Amino acid sequence: MKKKNIRIVVQVFFFALIGLISINKTLAESGGGVTFLSDASLHALCPFGGVVTLYNLFTLGTFIKKIHMSAVILMSIIFILAILFGPVFCGWVCPLGTVEEWIGKAGRKLFKNKYNNFVPKKLDRILRYLRYIVLIWVVYMTSISGYLLFDKIDPYNALFSFWSEEAAPSAIIVLVVTLTLSLFVERPWCKYACPYGALLGISNKFRIFKIKRNENTCISCKKCGRSCPMNIEVSAVEQVNNLQCISCLECTSERSCPVENTVNMQNNSFAPVGKENENEN
């Protein structure tokens, strides 16, 4: 299998897995479904739930209602991966991000080069701070209430429960808006509102394996930047430290860069440190 196809396979696998678990949970409630999956819950597979319940556990000594210990375990695994490779959960696993990308392919065909460039850069820089505000709000409100209030607006949960009473109407609205915007902007939820993406994005500043560009072999074609779903100008930096990077590797020589071994993920301990991408493009 070609390396460029591996990410697609991984994305489809996790989307199908989460979808199967969610549908099976609904069937199990009416006496059907696959027996060995009947106890599995979307909440038990919510890594962000692990963040807020861990905070609640340390401050109040209790778990967030609806959240299972498995969410904390999942969160721990994702954090370890983030320290090593950055937000790979966002770029490879998250089913909502995957759906946004799939819809984005239709948007790219409709709008060509205009796609993913509708939002003016100055406004885009401001909007990208919103997800940090959402992160602070969610952690604070959940910690004082003991409930995962984010459920009320969470499009991730709504994507896999919109057919049941478990999905809040407000979350379904956010999901519809997110998917609609995906026709114009690639991964709009990831860029502007996802609190978990905001948290994982911090790992780009200290991750062990970083995406680096070799200036000596770079031909300045800027294909790496154009391929980036998060609009990071990879061709303007030697090392991608941008908080928005989702480690999708779309910019690398194995995907978009036409020059071999020019844009690659490297061990930060041994590769020279270059200029940092300080802005939030």
Task: Kindly list the characteristics that best describe this protein.
single chain; 281 residues; mainly alpha; two-stranded antiparallel sheet; 12 helices; 2 strands; 49% helix; globular; disordered C terminus
Outline the fold blueprint.
Blueprint (H helix, E strand, L loop, with lengths): L2 H27 L17 H14 L8 H17 L2 H6 L1 H17 L9 H7 L2 H16 L9 H5 L9 H13 L6 H5 L2 H7 L7 E5 L9 H5 L35 E5 L14
Helix pairs in contact: 2-3, 2-7, 7-11
Concise overview:
The chain has 281 residues and is mostly helical.
Written account of the structure:
- 49% of the residues lie in helices and 4% in strands.
- It contains 12 helices and 2 strands.
- It has helices spanning 3-29, 47-60, 69-85, 88-93, 95-111, 121-127, 130-145, 155-159, 169-181, 188-192, 195-201, 223-227; strands at 209-213, 263-267.
- A two-stranded antiparallel sheet has the order 1-2.
- Mean pLDDT is 82; it is low at 270-281.
Number of beta strands: 2
Task: Summarize the main sheet.
Answer: 2 strands, antiparallel
- Rg calculated over all Cα atoms: 19 Å
Q: In whole angstroms, how far apart are the ends? A: 33 Å
Portion of residues in beta strands equals under 5%
Mean pLDDT: 82
The number of helices is 12
